[in-house]
## 1
Amino acid sequence: MSDPMTELFTAALGLAEPWHVKAVRFDQAAHEIHFDVTCEASRLPCPRCKAPDQPIHDRLKRDWQHLHFFQYRALIHAELPRVRCGVCGERGDTEVQQVPVPWARERSGFSLLFEAMVVTLAGMSRMPVRRIAKLLGVSDQRLWRSLGALVDAAYAKADMRGVDAVGIDEKHVGRGRVVTVVHDASPASRGRVLHVSEGCKADNVGLFVEALQAHGGNPGAIQRCSMDMAKGFIAGVKRHLPGALPCFDPFHLVKLANEALDSVRRAEVVQEPALKHTRYHWLKDASDWSRAEINLHWLRQSGLRTARAWRLKECLRDILAWRRVPHVPVLLLMDGWIQWARRCRLPAFKRLAMTFKTHIEGIRNMLTHANSNATAESINADVQSAIARARGFRTFRNLRTIVYLLKGRLDLPGSPFAHAMA
Ligand SMILES: [Zn+2]
């Protein structure tokens, strides 16, 4: 092997004995570079039992796509040796074993470096798979299959021991579809997504519990479950996680209050021109008000029904914000708020008060365990952004792949040269 060109590319592909590049072929018209890789050995160790010096049974021709070299699409071709192992044969195992190649996973048509590049582009730089496919010159379907297989393999190895708190959310993913996302709310978890399933019913909690057990987790160890007030989840947690305290998500409470407020405004705006074009003023944070909005004191302090509804909503937000402040009697304040809302003569808020009363236990749990739930609450927005990116995926499988890739904290293949650069 004295040809400098083949030697150069043997090094560039990271090959070592007995593998080397036998020939390099440029196809100028097709913008392709082809590497013919060969394994010189006539006898090899058995890939399964490691018995040394076994004869080669036959060689199978295979192709892989590698990362581009400059503008050239790079393809690796090799005849893969299959070893006939005497030791495995005597034990009654399959005699003929495919030798693994140093540049690719078993059954993958892409090299490791290529796959690492795809994971990096999709995961770290958050590039859409369609664009990666175009960049690397492969079809999106093939790329999705490869990414799906990589993520599945990494998810299968996910360790869920020690999970003691979870958050369950329903997420709308477009075209009327809903998925259930369960994330790890244990303080050290940094909010990794544990499970994604289609639909949002009690059974989805059961599916999560099955996955938890399959990954070494213990459903009996789950102490708290942060969620919204959806009937399905409440029933599912009762049935499948009987030891978990339900804690209703404070953002969800505010969202319900905002919906009630908006319905009050919509009913009143018909007779009250001052309320025209003020929808977002009532819904947004005071810190986001424009100068003109700040000056609307007269409107906020008026006797309008919308103004009263706004004051109720803001009071609820204050109580929820105080849940992490020591010595504030938030449970009493919450009871007081429900009383106020019941007597406020605004039907939307009276209904909201009834809803809160029905779910008072989960609201009290949320208020008293505020600090333990901080993780669950803060990462909800983070999971939401991953889901927002996943919207519009044609298949549930692709959606799940991207959510696990971005938020599963899986051990996915990085660049094989990463350790050399670190
Ligand atoms: Zn063997």
## 2
Amino acid sequence: MVKVNILGSASGVPTKKRSCSSTAVLSAESAYLLDAGEPCSRLLVKEDIPYNCIKAVFISHMDPDHFSGIFMLVKLMALTGRKGPLKIYVPEEAVVKLKEFFRTVYLFEEILSFDYDVFPIKEGVFYHDENINIAGLPNTHMQKRLQTRYPQLPLESYSFVLKTADRTIGYSGDLGCIEDLETLVDTPLDLMIVELAHIEPSSLMEFLAGKDIEKVIFTHIHPELEDREDDIRRLAEKFLEGRCSIAYDGLRMEV
Ligand SMILES: [Zn+2]
């Protein structure tokens, strides 16, 4: 069994009810964090998640709403005497810059109580431990947004597939187009956590309707969608018949 706890369910625009993207996944005695938008540290505390059990953090892409909480999280771990190592995975383009920035904010690895390091996300399985393996699926989110203006930049962004001994979970990250989901739904999924800010909700739900997915959590809720939550719920019921939830901060699900 895997426990999923949505910490922040907003898009890049936080609302009174929702904070930026972060999701905790708990398997056995370990926890993993998918994206680290702010204020993920406070939300981990609020949700009573033992944040010093987080073995690794996976940042799907370098938009601030997905990674701005990482510095405070490492600071919190240091202040509370964490001992175990922490691995932080980001798109390759950001590895060196992020390490430098940790030093800029005085989070020198050599004076903290624990080791941390920054690693690149790769296509395919790039992380595994005794509980879980995680694969990166490149998507077009950053390219769709910025390639015309900044064609020289790597513009990496990823979706993830997480596999434990008996469960498979898909995590969309932010998407560029609906076709980005094709590889994600190649495998049967026990749960899919999919963003709702960059794809038209009805096309997304129609796409998901025929797929081998046990449960769906829609997250990354833009303020305009928050105002239309009842419509979205009706649409979701029509296409996915009781298999879906609209994320809110603090949503917990056992998979
Ligand atoms: Zn985003």
## 3
Amino acid sequence: MRDKIGIYIHIPFCESKCFYCDFCSSSSSNESTVQAYIESLIEEILSQSEMLSEYNIDTIYIGGGTPSFIDAKYIKDVMQVLFASSSVLEDAEITIEVNPESCTLEKLKTYKEIGINRISVGLQTIHDNILQNIGRKAKFNDFKIAYDNILKAGFENISVDLMCGLPGDNKQTFNETIQYILSLDKLKHISVYSLEVHENTKLDFLIENGFVSLPSEDEERDMKHALDESLEQNGFYLYEISNYAKQGFESKHNLKYWNSNYYIGFGCAAASYINSTRYCNTKSIEEYIQNGSKCNKSEIEQLDLLDLEKEFVILSLRLSKGIDKLEFSNRFKIDIWDMFKEELNKCIKDGLLEENKTNIYLTKRGQDLANIVWQQFI
Ligand SMILES: C[S@@+](CC[C@H](N)C(=O)[O-])C[C@H]1O[C@@H](n2cnc3c(N)ncnc32)[C@H](O)[C@@H]1O
Ligand code: SF4
């Protein structure tokens, strides 16, 4: 029986650059660059077909950037090559990230035809003034049209991305966003990311120069708590620090990251984790196009045992169920308490972690102060 593995495919193109974003994406590429990029992507997948044939693929995640920005024929080409050069399981979860302004009914129908069965759509907030503050291309009305199209195309497994702590947002406006998304048909999954302000982004400049301001940490925490309550009352449970799902609709692909399972990434800036080794492709679109398969998996980080143990702890603690103590001792042949006695005791004493028979997990306070917990294990 072959081991299972997930595949990530990066599409680094967007219509425009959101003010907060530092993901690998270009908003100034023309059609010939997109075409050349897809050719390199296909070359990279083919160059790995021997390795791929050793595994069964149970998840594929097409992310970005904005995969829906490019012509759906490119996504079709890539998927055809992937299906032909690997063994994708019948019930594999296959997700594509889409943005409201570019996911037309026609594109969505193509995604459905080629086997994509999960859509992740970025809304962030329903308030146009806040969308404008963060440089989003789509207005709320574009989202409504897009969501309608997603349903019309027949998708049943839909996830929406929101952001918390945005400039101009407050408890009331955030609550209006939550109430709206709870009214959506067939919504199975919600990601809510706390805004991260990265250096040298336009948002950083706007904040530094007083053009926009952010809600306070306390306000943001209140919003998050109200969110937890509303979503729980409506059948969504928090299974990861930023992710809620209806039972059985957790993101199988993202669970691979948090469970320290193996995945292979294709495309520029794509990360892979196989045989205790992390790889990352070049972050330059130009270099990726020029070198094709030759520059893939160029940055290599071989993790030693201690790195693996610490990483397992940090990633597991992101999950509501926390660290599975038996899984830790099976993987590392040592009891977690023998390995991290001091760190665990400190976090438990500070009310950040709790333990039951099988697991160690973040308390509510620990979820609010997760960074303090991570510090113990870095
Ligand atoms: C990288 S985007 C890719 C998908 C798509 N282009 C979009 O914008 O929805 C995926 C999600 O990451 C989140 N994100 C990106 N940059 C972020 C930041 N600086 N802070 C918090 N969340 C961020 C947004 O919620 C976004 O929906
Ligand atoms: S659309 Fe998504 S990937 Fe593109 S700039 Fe905005 S947040 Fe980043």
## 4
Amino acid sequence: MAEALRIENLHVSFGASTGQVKALNGVSFSQEEGQIFCLVGESGAGKSTVALAVMGLLPITASVPEGSIYFDGKDLLKASPDEMRHLRGNQISMVFQDAQAALNPVQLVGPQLEEVILAHTDVTPRVANQMALDMLAEMGMPEPRRIMGQYPFSLSGGMCQRIMLAIAMVLKPRLLIADEPTSGLDVTLQAQILERIRTLSREQNSSILLITHDMGVVASMANKVGVIYAGTVVETSEVIPLFQEPQHPYTWSLLKTLPRLDQPDSRLEPLRGNPPDMTKLPEECPFLPRCNKAINRCRQDPRPPLEEMQPGHFAACYNPVIAGVD
Ligand SMILES: Nc1ncnc2c1ncn2[C@@H]1O[C@H](COP(=O)(O)OP(=O)(O)OP(=O)(O)O)[C@@H](O)[C@H]1O
Ligand SMILES: [Mg+2]
């Protein structure tokens, strides 16, 4: 299978009044064409920063001191603004976490959708209008005709996300980045939206980079997973080995937050402690203060690199979890 996206050693910092926020500190992972790759981690881990870096849409306060982002064999960090604009219109699209802000505030929803359909297909305006209505209905929108006549600010965040997703579907992107596309939606709608994303991946062979903090979404969607903690990928592998034999203690604790069907009485364990202050990152493993598997080496050595523990299964840990022991 061909590679769709490969990120190597990506570093991103933000200049802020409190100091440099080291949001990404050597993020690496790769994803194949047609795959659904889930990037999972807690709030502030750097998930949206990865997405914005791929899109070439980091804010002006951001700097990228190191790293590469290969799409189609080309390093996007070396692409010109024009090339990036072209890619965003034709090959890579994104559903933003803050979808409301990403839509045009002074244009009605209907014309925004129709414009994209007309620009990317050969249909007449009347057909474009019907397609837009059908797409909103498919996204589970009640009264699509009424919604077409509204401005984005009068709609909920969840509705705006579904409109963005509808726009992304028309574009038939080779890579779709969906940043928490179902947060804030009820479970039925969540299932419906996730099914639409699966369809896009299956029918158009689109690659999906799906960002979530929910291991349940990962379990139902991912082919491959990257677990991100304090701006680094601490574990990445195909989905089944990650769930069956998690290697990193952080992945292990994320899995413990999931309800178990086979152990209905097991308690859900929230992860104790907090992620580190991203302006004062330690030299050693950033998970150390929360880790119940830490050994002396974890305190003495610099942070562990991402290493191949099993074929295709990488983790950054000096004392990985051994299945069945913990
Ligand atoms: N524009 C910015 N200026 C300064 N710091 C920022 C900026 N954007 C993000 N950060 C910081 O960078 C780190 C990573 O943020 P990011 O938004 O990528 O996290 P996330 O994993 O997407 O979190 P969430 O799940 O809450 O969306 C956080 O510490 C955040 O506060
Ligand atoms: Mg985010």
